[in-house]
Amino acid sequence: AHQIHQFASARWLESSAVLSRSFLLRAAPVVDRLEQGRMTMCAETIDPVVEHAERHRVQREVRFRDLTSEDCIPVSPRKQPLCSRQRGAEPQASVVRPPESSARSHVWHAVHIGDESAIHSLVASGSCTASMQDLSGHSVMWHLVAWGHFKLALFMLDTFPFGQEGSSAATEVHPARKDTLLHVLCRSGSFGKEAADLFQRILNGEDCAALLNARDKAGETFLDVAVATPNFWVLRYTLQKYWALLEDVWCKSSSSSSRSEDPLLQRLTTRIGYPAVRPAASLQRVTRHLDLASMLLQDHEGVAPPYADVAFRVAAYGRTPSYCATPAATSKAQDDGEILTVFAHRVVVAGGSPVLFESLQRCQMEQIPGFQGMQACIFRVDSSISVRTWRFVIHYIYGVDVDQEATRLARSAKELLELVRACCMYSLPTPILSFAEASLCNLLSSAPASLALEVFVFAQEYGHERLRALREDAAYWVVRGWHDLLCEGRQVNEPACILSTALGMIEAVLRLRAGGSLSEVSTTPEARNKRIFDR
User: Fold this and answer.
1) 325: which strand partners?
2) Per residue in 136-153, pLDDT tens?
């Protein structure tokens, strides 16, 4: 009976509406007897339905009463109701105006199927505006967005801009689900350039703060929907333009529902899966036929190695970069500035590094303090590289067995990052970089979020193609650990830019794995559970 009534009300069929009302009234005692007290159709259930049918009946009577002859069209006698004919009387032609819903039905049909020519003509004739609503209270703009007709939605915005006559409200909310137009856009399966343009215009339309913080019935904002899709464009655009208004959302749980208590970005990384373990790279000795290792040995009196002609000035401890620092001092090198000296031979180290080769060619011989009568080229190593890391590099170039040192380095993410810096800055042999990159990728999951940020920023700024795997893994752990990073009290320079770049890197990996279509990743359970980063 309820289905009959809804069908009748939607099509403005007066006789069927009356029939459904009568049927409900007669069915009430029958339902009472059948259910035997378990479920009764009481007056509270019937009265709203009867009121609804009566209201539509009165509206139709008023409309028919106000009709004029110009509004009516002739109807053939054959189609006259039987009750209006008198026995023996000749059938007479009468006039009946089609119900108003026929024109409205044409509008909604064109809106639902996305008929551009029909909507353009209806708008030109004044029969359709963006604020026109259906029986459920949804505007034309809402339906165009919900059905994915973004081009037509942009046309309606151009014709009826927000705040002008005939325009819909940018803050329109679904009566039952309580979601906004931004929620509907983020749930769209095909989010392209037109959808992005529509998103920007809706968000910039009116009352931006209300749209950013609006929650649906489940307590989720449009950012929660964008994470569940996932829609990286929405996340990056909101980050870049509205960071100040949503700064707390990125590090806290933006959902007030009990289904999701994790921070927003942590849920995003959980959904796309964890990076795979990188295969370990072996360190092969460069020289096997020359005993260069003995040239580094010093005697018991602390004299420099024989024939040494270069002195590397290296910090005892690596310096913490300025883009990820705590308010207090974070390394001993910043406190005491201790500098140590590592001796080597120019002809050996220049053969392992083209950067050192060019730099040492321009160096002049100088007196080495503390070493009487010794002259050498003084080369100052970058302060972010510690003396232990630099000695490992020198030992590898000289062909020293570095297996024990490599085992120790593979357990220290900080020293591995120093080794990656050294390889990139001084173009060290490829086996060292491959070993450091693979080992560091596998340690990022257990490393602090600040170190993951340090790795990502360096890899992004340096832009080395060989660091692509490290950039991808570091981007993942930066996004996942953003909440922990801010909880540690870290001061991050340009947080919106860094986080947006990391999200872009993750999106690029997802698109690469999906063959250029991000929707393939987000629609099937198999794709959601697949380890996207496994190459």
Assistant:
1) 491
2) 888 999 999 999 999 999
**Residue 139: beta bridge partners?**
133
What single string gives the DSSP state of each residue in 10-79? Answer: HTT-HHHHHHHHHHHHHHHHHHHHHHTTSS---HHHHHHHHHHHHHHHHHHHHHHHT--GGG-EEE-GGG
On whether the CB atoms of residues 387 and 364 are closer than 8 A, the answer is no
By residue count, the chain amounts to 535
- How far apart are alpha carbons 364 and 361 in whole angstroms? 8
Omega of the bond prior to 230 within 30 degrees of 0, cis? yes
The confidence band for 196, taking pLDDT boundaries of 50, 70 and 90, is: very high
The HSE-up count of residue 158 (CA atoms within 13 Å, CB side) is: 9
133-136-141 Cα angle (round to 5): 40
What 3-state DSSP class applies to 366? strand
Residue 310 backbone phi and psi in degrees, to 5? -140, 135
Phi (first) and psi of residue 75, to 5 degrees: -125, 140
**Does residue 75 come out as left (phi exceeding 0), alpha (psi in the -120 to 50 range) or beta?**
beta
Token pair of 226 as six digits: 């964008």
Give CA–CA dist 226/219, Å, rounded: 14
Rounded Cα distance between 119 and 287, Å, is: 77
Is the per-residue pLDDT at 389 higher than 90? yes
Among 301, 194, 335, 275, smallest CA distance to 456 is for 275
pTM of the model: 0.68
Kindly indicate the confidence band of residue 195, based on its pLDDT and cuts at 50, 70 and 90.
very high
Q: CA 83 to CA 61: how far, in whole Å?
A: 18
CA distance 189 to 195: 11
User: Does the pLDDT value for residue 309 go beyond 90?
Assistant: no
Among 53-57, 230-234, 335-339, 518-522, name the most confident range: 230-234
Alpha helices of 488-524 — where are they, by DSSP H?
495-513, 519-523
Match 């959808």 to its residue by tokens: 195
